[in-house]
Amino acid sequence: MNKQYLYYIIFLCMELGLSGTCPAQSPICRLPEKAGDFTYTLASGKQGTLYALRSEWTLLYFYDPECEDCQALMKQLKASKTLNRLIGEKRIQVLAVYPEDDTAVWLEQAEHVPQTWMNAYDRGAVIYTEGRYLITSLPALYLLDRLKNIRLKTADAHEVENELKLIDNK
Q: Taking the CA of residue 29 as centre, how many other CA atoms within 13 Å lie in the half-sphere pointing to its CB?
């Protein structure tokens, strides 16, 4: 692809306000952006990496256990029939990540995260320090495809729900 043409597509997406959350049905903004890999730690102490997760879709949910907005978003996501159905069908995995390493705070609130989600923290807070994700505020949602390309980033619950409905109808 010609570089000039690529720059034009990026510019057009930005002008249309589609730079962060291009809708799946918009072919003009389908340029793949790979999510940054990172290591997460579960309550058991077991560690894993984002890229090792094997599912058709991954919903990456960055949150702070003490954040009221994060709790409200989690409540909305828990109530999503579409999300719960896709989880039940094993088409999507939800990885809830506390991007810091204050395990006392994280463990205190761990019971509020649904059992069907993977609840993890970032030992060493490398997600922030290595700049793999531009997280300006929490909560932050990223929807990733099976290749870990970002389909939605810093999305809200409604954008995620709309995208999940499209996924569910495939």
A: 19
